[in-house]
Design a protein that fits this description.
elongated, two-stranded antiparallel sheet, Porin, mainly beta
């Protein structure tokens, strides 16, 4: 995790711990799990393409039912035509790191907290908005190459996709209170994106001879990789052949276990002061 994030997290933790009336509403937590992808190179989630993911978050409890959760998460996504027989001759693949900053709203199905008249377990749903960075790469002759600037579908410089994009996360999870301070959780959250280029695959093949002249041999080789299949000697595509499905936007997903710490225990009724949890 970047040093700036660590410093910010440490500062907020000290600040919240020093202000008990404020910190009763706040939790700080971490997440660990897996990231995956759904798109042109994986019309369904492929478990063997799962990668380790992690993150950190703050949770501001508005009451027993609603919370706001800002977070940062990092993971890796990948896909390969080798996982699907019908795509054998297209033979494309990619890998990309994902870094996401998001703000989520959580809704608990049960009144959830550590006080009387609340539950120690609840399912919940969440939704929000995120900003994420990605950069698809492909391995070729033992080396990894960034695909965007290779113009693999013949895009002009102005047509190249942006590496920073908006996402809409939504999903569900479960939460358990272990004690007055510690909460454990599990969640499965999809991210709807507004790009079809998480995998660098979207539209049609370019004119490979002209493409080679304009962008080079490496770009043409990574645009159509069918010639790497045993028994194939020349690229199989012709200009205008479909390389992907532009009507299908790409998705990514984080499946996470979480733990969070509430900075100060809340005094139980009838001795506790009135707090937001009494709503």
């Amino acid at each position: 995790m970047p040093k700036s994030i660590i410093k910010l997290t440490s500062f907020l933790a000290v600040f919240l711990a020093a202000n008990s009336s404020f910190s009763q509403k706040w939790e700080i937590g971490g997440m660990l799990g897996a990231s995956n992808y759904n798109g042109d190179l994986a019309r369904e989630i492929v478990l063997k393409e799962s990668h380790l993911a992690g993150g950190a978050f703050f949770r501001y409890n508005l009451g027993k039912y609603f919370s706001i959760k800002p977070s940062i998460q990092v993971g890796t996504i990948s896909g390969s035509d080798a996982n699907f027989k019908e795509n054998k001759y297209r033979n494309l693949s990619f890998k990309s790191n994902i870094t996401e900053v998001a703000a989520m709203m959580e809704y608990n199905f049960k009144p959830f907290g550590v006080q009387v008249r609340t539950e120690s377990f609840t399912p919940y749903v969440q939704f929000g908005v995120g900003l994420f960075h990605f950069n698809p790469k492909a391995k070729y002759n033992g080396d990894w190459f960034e695909l965007r600037n290779l113009h693999t579908e013949g895009q002009t410089t102005k047509e190249l996709y942006k590496l920073n994009q908006i996402s809409v996360p939504f999903g569900m999870g479960l939460k358990w209170t272990v004690n007055n301070n510690l909460t454990l959780g599990f969640e499965f959250v999809y991210r709807k994106t507004f790009t079809d280029y998480l995998d660098d695959v979207s539209k049609t093949y370019p004119d490979l001879p002209e493409h080679t002249k304009k962008y080079g041999t490496l770009s043409a080789s990574l645009s159509d990789r069918s010639a790497e299949i045993d028994g194939v000697t020349d690229p199989l595509s012709t200009i205008g052949d479909m390389r992907g499905d532009p009507g299908l936007q790409d998705w990514y997903v984080f499946t996470m276990f979480s733990f969070s710490y509430r900075f100060t225990p809340v005094v139980c009724w009838p001795n506790k002061p009135s707090t937001v949890w009494d709503y």
